[in-house]
Amino acid sequence: RGHRGEAAKMASTAAGKQRIPKVAKVKNKAPAEVQITAEQLLREAKERELELLPPPPQQKITDVEELNDYKLRKRKTFEDNIRKNRTVISNWIKYAQWEESLKEIHRARSIYERALDVDYRNVTLWLKYAEMEMKNRQVNHARNIWDRAITTLPRVNQFWYKYTYMEEMLGNVAGSRQVFERWMEWQPEEQAWHSYINFELRYKEVDRARSIYERYILFTLLVIVHPDVKNWIKYARFEEKHSYFAHARKVYERAVEFFGEEHMNEHLYVAFAKFEENQKEFERVRVIYKYALDRIPKQDAQNLFKNYTIFEKKFGDRRGIEDIIVSKRRFQYEEEVKANPHNYDAWFDYLRLVESDADADTVREVYERAIANVPPIQEKRHWKRYIYLWINYALYEELEAKASNRTRQVYQACIELIPHKKFTFAKIWLLYAQFEIRQKNLPLARRALGTSIGKCPKNKLFKGYIELELQLREFDRCRKLYEKFLEFAPENCTSWIKFAELETILGDIDRARAIYELAISQPRLDMPEVLWKSYIDFEIEQEEYEKTRNLYRRLLQRTQHVKVWISFAQFELSAGKEESLPRCRQIYEEANKAMRNCEEKEERVMLLESWRNFEEEFGTDTTKERIVKLMPEKIKKRRKLQAEDGSDAGWEEYYDYIFPEDTANQPNLKLLAMAKLWKKQQQESEAAEMDPDKDIDESES
Predict the structure, then answer these.
(1) Measured distance CA(476)–CA(496) in Å, rounded
(2) φ, ψ of residue 316 in degrees (nearest 5)
(3) DSSP type of residue 654
(4) Which partner from 472, 487, 520, 697 sits 20 to 30 angstroms from 678, CA to CA?
């Protein structure tokens, strides 16, 4: 029993050793750094499939039995492939081509027939089958195959092309024509018809080719919804090429009539014009181009413009060339205003072009289109360019068209369009009034200007109205207008001055003086210095010197400006009396005293320079010496600058003036002068010590 257990144990141990093979022990069980995925394994396997296998050994067939054995094995391989993949036509073609290479035509034919039973719609199969028959000079078999192919698949154009080409190569022109006729019954595409036409032309059958063209044109009219222009052009060129010029012209005319004005094409008219140009019919060419340009949309007529320009440069006169250039520029402007209707500069250029060449109705039409583009925003800056369209329109109607009624309507329509409550244009009102005056209609002109002042008073309107009445010598009206003007704008000094000058011209001095007095009493004026100067000049002209002095005194009570003092002094000098020089000197004395506390030292310097010039011309030595002592000293100083944020911005040098009169009252300035003098003496003594020879020479001398 113990022996049995040991034997069983030994047997099981032996069996275990047989079952479990020895495996190398892995010392490092950590994962590798580079991991290989299943995708990489599959990709490598696929790449290794593409590796070139060594070619099979060449087999030499020495007798018929080996050949038959080889054929049998090869056929068995092909048949197995066909049985596995019956629908793969390439297997059938390879099988048939192999049989053909062995000159087994009947077997290859049988394979092709079997393949056609599987897939008769395969175009390649039919082509290979027919090519095999043609290659082996089996013409009737090839005809039979082509007949079957075009009957089975009549829409495959390649069959028809191959069939007709074969018949033509065989010299069977009638047979090829018959095939073309069968093909045309199927109403093929354009290229098929042209192939038929070219076929007939190769055999000089022009009449037959013409009849085919007619059939094709009829086919396009009846079948094709949008026939192409190029077919008509080809037909016409065919007639032209064979010198049937009347027929060619008739074809072009039929094409123009057929397409009409709804489907006009520039290529048709370009071809028609070039045909007439070749026939030396230049007037007909010009008519064709103009007819087309008037009806074809501008964006579709680029080529037409180009050819018309070339034609006019070759055969036209200067007027014709200018017409085509104008037409081209008109097209460009049309594109610009279409892209941006509010581009008023483009409208101005367009209108300038139209006015130079077109009739009045066309110009009016363009003007109406232009003024219809009203600025969308009611702000004056957007209307400034637009309003000139109306002005140019009115000027055109008046000066070019000589239509006064239309001019008046244009002005009135423009005035109604402008939003006068927000802004107005004085130019329009004035131009309208001037137009009515040219028409000798003064009441309407006055009514227009009165309406403008009532609706939207402006300085320019008042000035224009006053100028009109002045030209008409209506001085009472001018006075009333000035009164209204000054009620509207009492701060306008120019108006006060003009009103006073008007009264002066009319000889009413008291009214003029009263106007000046009223003007200078206004609390707010835009240019008071101009008004005072005009008032003073007025009194000087009237030789009212006392009143002039009073005016200067009144003015100096309001302002202590240096120019007023200088002007006052010069007035006293020019008075021309004996006491003029003392009076002038006294004015300078008063001015100097008054300006001692003035912060602007440059003005005080200006006064002293004017005084010095006066003394140099009219003064004595004593007065000259006195004014020299009053002249200031110019010194350079530095001051600290600060930036906007308060930081230090460095130092700035500037010039300051020190007046002797001021230094007498300021002891600090005296101390500064003494310090400067001491420094100067010190510098001189140091220079003497450094140069003893100079001291000896000076002592000897």
Answers:
(1) 16
(2) -95, 175
(3) E
(4) 697
DSSP string, 337-364: HHH-TT-HHHHHHHHHHHHHHS-HHHHH
Give the tokens for residue 171.
């010299």
CATH superfamily of 374-489: Tetratricopeptide repeat domain (1.25.40.10)
* pTM of the entire predicted model: 0.50
Q: What does the pLDDT look like over 342-378, one tens digit per residue?
A: 888 888 888 888 887 777 888 888 888 888 888 888 8
Which residue in 245, 295, 243 sits closest to 269, CA to CA?
295
Buried b (16+ CB within 10 A) or exposed e, 485-513: bbeebbebbebbbbbbebbbeeeeeebbb
Across the chain, mean pLDDT equals: 79
Tokens matching residue 10 = 């030994």
Measured CA to CA, the distance from residue 469 to residue 437 in angstroms comes to 12
d(CA 519, CA 532): 9
The domain limits of the chain are 226-316, 374-489
**The domain defined by 226-316 carries CATH number 1.25.40:** yes
Handedness of CA 285, 291, 295, 297 (dihedral sign): positive
Residues 6+ apart with CB under 8 A from 273: 285, 288, 289, 307, 308, 311
**34-57 b/e with 16+ CB inside 10 Å = b?**
eeeeeeeeeeeeeeeeeeeeeeee
pLDDT band at 661 (very low <50, low <70, confident <90, very high): low
CA dihedral defined by 27, 28, 34, 36, rounded to 10 degrees?
A: 60
| Tokens matching residue 371 | 């003024």
Cα separation, 661 vs 620, whole angstroms: 21
Of 364, 419, 365, 420, which Cα lies nearest the Cα of 397?
Answer: 364
**At residue 211, what is the residue type?**
S
All residues at 6 or more sequence positions from 327 whose CB lies less than 8 Å from its CB, including other chains: 293, 305, 308
List all residues 6 or more positions away from 45 whose beta carbon is below 8 Å from its beta carbon.
none
If residue 635 lies in a helix (H) or strand (E), which one and from where to where? strand 633-642
Tokens representing 21?
Answer: 């093979």
Tens of pLDDT, residues 507-524: 778 888 887 777 777 777
Domains 226-316 and 374-489 share a fold: yes
* Mean pLDDT value across residues 146-171: 92
Token reading at 47: 């790449």
